[in-house]
């Protein structure tokens, strides 16, 4: 099965308030009449969100087109997963007081880059930094980074 097919069969479900039982979530999204979905290949729940992979891309498309989803009076937000871009990496857990120069040194040392190879885009809270590379990173990433690519 191709990665493109997997991407088309996947949706991310979030619920900002309340809690949703994983089994109830599964039953809801497998019910075509209620959610537009059908058979689910896998579900991965983590906190107040879940990643659902349907057996068929058409089911994911129907779920997304329905728009409004509610389970046990909990409103669900359903969207496509974020597209992966090999030219962008997200640096998480940055101390907001860390200087831009220190972050630049870290990125250059960890990735073997020069300053013209990337742009740093800190989030407003400065605890996240988007590393935008001038070209796709082809060197091997450190093992500890491979979980998130």
UniProtKB/TrEMBL annotation:
Q: List the residue ranges forming a coiled coil, or say none.
A: none
Annotated CDD domains = RRM1_2_PAR10 (cd12547)
Please give the InterPro entries that the UniProt record associates with this protein: Nucleotide-bd_a/b_plait_sf (IPR012677), PAR10_RRM1_2 (IPR034464), PARP14_RPM_1 (IPR057051)
Q: Which Gene3D superfamilies match?
A: 3.30.70.330
Q: Which Pfam families match?
A: RRM_PARP14_1
Q: Cite the PAR14-like first RRM domain residue spans from the record.
A: 23-72
This protein is called: PAR14-like first RRM domain-containing protein
Q: Which organism is it from?
A: Salarias fasciatus (Jewelled blenny)
